[in-house]
Write a structure and sequence with these properties.
With 214 residues, this protein is an alpha/beta fold. 42% of the residues lie in helices and 12% in strands. The chain has nine helices and six strands, in the order βαααααβαβαβαββα. Strands 3-2-1-4-5-6 form a six-stranded parallel sheet. Helix 1 (18-32) packs across helix 4 (67-85). The longest helix is centred in the middle third of the chain and has 19 residues, at 67-85. The protein starts with a strand and ends with a helix. The structure holds 1,6-di-O-phosphono-beta-D-glucopyranose and magnesium ion. Residues 9, 11-13, 45-46, 171-172 line the site of magnesium ion. Magnesium ion is lined by residues 9, 11-13, 45-46, 171-172.
Length: 214
């Protein structure tokens, strides 16, 4: 086998919480009179909450905002976001994703999550996916988010695998950069396929089975 383990990004790969991130940031941006489109939202994929706020504030031209105020905005955004997550259920993960994950595991690969989100554990519980993974590396365990490789190196460390034996699955350009910086090959799905920078592009999650001969 070319790889021993597969590290999955969460938002945009396994679950589509990106729409909830967008709506929560949009609510905050509207209140502050900042223009924020779905295209702007694409720049936030895989990026930490704090860095996302800085990107949104690039279009803010009012009085300087204190660090304390920024912290309040981060809390406000996360409260709106978590309200949406509360409505998620098992049905928010497709059968195709569940079956593909099972088949990959049955073929002998070890599975981990590598997500920038500090809400990872909560999301996995909501959609009943916690048991599908051997290890979880997330935003609560790192100091630098994607495109830095830290979260993927943390996942490899938890899995006790060499980075070069791990394959990353990502929807964010920042995630493809992070995987390569970690010394890992990367599969792009969704938005990350556009740049053509990944080692593989897939348009359907079950195409992973072909790449992994699972
Ligand atoms: P949170 P991923 C990322 O998740 C999202 O893509 C990104 O939009 C978000 O800002 C980041 O998590 C932090 O999320 O506010 O929940 O800590 O794609 O790395 O699974
Ligand atoms: Mg993602």
């Amino acid at each position: 086998m070319q790889y021993k383990a597969v590290i999955f990004d969460l938002d945009g790969v396994l679950v589509f919480t990106d729409k909830y991130h967008y709506l929560a940031w949009k609510a905050l941006a509207d209140r502050l009179g900042i223009e924020f489109t779905e295209k702007d939202n694409d720049r936030l994929r895989g990026v930490s909450r704090e860095e996302s706020l800085e990107i949104i504030l690039e279009k803010y031209h009012g009085e300087p905002i204190s660090e304390d105020k920024k912290k309040e905005y981060l809390v406000e955004k996360n409260e709106i976001y978590k309200d949406s997550l509360g409505d998620m259920t098992r049905d928010d993960v497709t059968e195709k994703v569940r079956q593909t994950l099972s088949k990959i595991r049955e073929a002998g690969y070890r599975l981990a999550i590598g997500s920038s989100s500090k809400n990872t554990s909560y999301i996995l519980e909501r959609v009943e996916l916690t048991d599908a993974f051997d290890e979880v590396a997330d935003g609560t365990m790192i100091t630098r988010s994607k495109p830095d490789p830290e979260v993927f190196l943390k996942a490899a460390q938890l899995l006790k695998e060499n980075p070069s034996d791990c394959l990353v699955v990502e929807d964010a350009d920042a995630g493809i950069t992070a995987a390569h910086a970690a010394g890992m090959d990367a599969v792009a799905i969704g938005a990350a396929t556009v740049s053509g920078r990944a080692d593989y592009n897939i348009s359907s999650f079950d195409e992973l089975l072909g790449i992994l001969h699972a």
